[in-house]
Amino acid sequence: MPAVRTDWTVEMLDALPDDGNRYEIIDGELFVTPAPSDTHQLVALELAIRLHSYLRPSSIARVLHSPADVRREDRRRNRVQPDVFVVRLADGQRPPYPFDLSDLLLAAEVESPSNRLYDYQTKRRLYLTNGVPEYWIISPEARTFARWRGTSDDAELLTAQLEWRPDGMLEPFVIDIPEFFDDALG
Fold first, then answer.
1. According to CATH, what is the number of the domain 10-185?
2. Domain limits, the chain
3. Residue 179 — very low, low, confident or very high, per pLDDT cuts 50/70/90?
């Protein structure tokens, strides 16, 4: 018997039980990942804290973390939750929630050992083809950051330092990568 494909909607996701898994949909296709590990959460938190300290004095952007909804054009059939992301402010105000992919200046995912292809292919393509100017995947295991700055851009694999400067910021955001992982996981 052929598999039945369900065209998932946000309303269907909202009806699912809260079982600790993360449910996301892209163009009606359901993606399920298990609850994040403590390592995953520590790395995501460390990044969010550092981005918050960098962005808070400005009126350029704000950092958020999952669970928080980000959608694209067909808002009924698309909902993702980046681990950490930066939302552009307009006149010092956040855009309406749930955020649109075009509102993001940065999306970052902590590598999911259960489904690396989802982070490295599906989500990368989704973010970069929908106007997110920069995408990072953080690997706690390898202690690296992979960075893309466009759909035709090859990944940069960063092991020593990461610099990011969104438009309007005078100074760059800088991460000493070994120190970052020591702080997050040490």
1. 3.90.1570.10
2. 10-185
3. very high
